[in-house]
Design brief:
By secondary structure, this protein is mainly alpha-helical. It has a domain at 36-104: Recoverin, domain 1 (Orthogonal Bundle). The protein is built from six helices and two strands. It has helices at 2-5, 16-29, 33-47, 57-66, 73-83, 93-103, and strands at residues 55-56, 90-91. Strands 1-2 form a two-stranded antiparallel ribbon. 10% of the residues are buried. The model has no long low-confidence stretch (mean pLDDT 77). The chain crosses the membrane at residues 30-47.
Length: 104
């Protein structure tokens, strides 16, 4: 995975623009099993700048369409239906990741 996102001159950092498409592909292919699902829990707090424990539906859509490789409409609808709490229009990411681990 690091080989896919590493810069030609290693800096010790991974650029988000390279990370997101690679991680999306890994998740869709379920290449690394439950380990990668647990890793996601560490990824959501990066998106949750105010550390609220959730991101909004609008933020999720923004990240899925404007950052890195955009999701298709079908991928976006699937993610929204699985991740977004329909009553509150938020993604409580700890609950979402827990659900994904159980479903895996």
């Amino acid at each position: 995975m690091l080989a896919e996102v590493e810069e030609e001159e290693p800096t010790g950092f991974i650029r988000f623009e390279k990370f997101l498409p690679m991680m999306t592909k890994v998740l869709l292919e379920r290449r690394y099993g439950i380990f990668i699902l647990c890793f996601i829990l560490g990824y959501f707090p990066v998106l949750d700048e105010k550390k609220k424990g959730f991101i909004t539906k609008e933020e999720l859509i923004k990240y899925m369409t404007e950052e890195g490789e955009p999701f298709t409409q079908e991928e976006m609808e699937e993610m929204i239906s699985a991740a977004v709490d329909p009553d509150k229009n938020i993604v409580p990411y700890k609950d979402y990741v827990s659900m994904m681990v159980v479903d895996y």
